[in-house]
Write a structure and sequence with these properties.
It contains 5 helices and 10 strands. By secondary structure, the chain is of the alpha+beta class.
Amino acid sequence: MRIKKTLLAAALGAGLLSAASAHAALTLSVDGNTVYDTDLNLTWLANANLAASNTFGVSGITAFGLSAGRMNWYTAQNWIGAMNAANYLGFNDWRLPTVTDTGTPGCNFGYNGTDCGYNVNTATGEMAHLWYDELGNIPYYNTAGAGGQSGWGLTNTGPFSNVPSGLYWSGTEYAPNTSHAWYFLTNNGNQYALNKSNGMFAWAVRPGQVAAVSAVPEPEAVAMLLAGLGLLGFTARRRRLGLR
């Protein structure tokens, strides 16, 4: 009986460890400058509005008298270019997030699983993946098209700082009209396109991992992990790790 209980506790503990790992897709770098998405093998700036404070010599970051960090699409591309010219954090392959146009060219607006609208197919947008899948935010409209669902909005920013609730440029032009580019709206989960002359925020990303990172597990994952260790009776191990 004692052996069975030990095996059961070990199995439960292993399950809790797996659950904790499943929620650890975003990891903050040791220096705090970047966040790595292990799902997409993509590195984001930890400061989601770096352009408001660090322009790399590019003018026009506060164009149109809008809030700091907002710029048109062309200025956003120039800002990215300046980052790469400065070899920011040791890399010159920074870019804006991408959007993949699926179905017929342009917006296939919908409330579930398309490339445009709400509850989009998150494989179509890197920001959509981050906002929906990694941060777990809820859009204004549910999949039936009913607005104002409970808990909607930018309620979780994870390990990131300075995440404005507003429009963010992608680096992808809008195929039916290249004077437009795709965007993602962080306050309600909308993915669509607008004229490149509009003022939006810019969030730089790059492929791969920038540097060694330290995991930032979610609080509930930590709680489950501790519970699993308690069931296994690893008192001595917990003392060595400083867990109480």
